[in-house]
Amino acid sequence: AEYMWMENEEDFNRQVEEELQEQDFLDRCFQEMLDEEDQEWFIPSRDLPQAMGQLQQQLNGLSVGDGHDSEDILSKSNLNPDAKEFIPGVKY
């Protein structure tokens, strides 16, 4: 009775190999699913450094005006001087 498993050794080996292949297939599918999910999610450590560099460059390009250009802007304005005053949240 001790060696009865040897009688079906080939069947046993085939069954174990099929189980291992199935487990390997499931592991690969699961990993692929996780990889796809990672690409869809916003991950700061991966996605922010480049964006932060771009923002920093944009911020460095900004400057505060000294106010002397405001008259020039007003003289070139195409705004309607007779328009109603804009009040946020009020529909006309």
Automatic annotation (TrEMBL):
Disordered as annotated region, ranges: 61-80
GO function terms (MF aspect): mRNA regulatory element binding translation repressor activity
Any one GO CC term of the record: cytoplasm
Origin: domain of life: Eukaryota
Family matches, as InterPro entries: PAIP2-like, PAM2_motif
Keyword Ubl conjugation carried by entry: yes
Keywords: Translation regulation, Ubl conjugation
GO biological process: negative regulation of translational initiation
Entry's family note: Belongs to the PAIP2 family.
Name of the protein described by the UniProt record: Polyadenylate-binding protein-interacting protein 2B
Native organism: Neovison vison (American mink)
Protein's gene: PAI2B
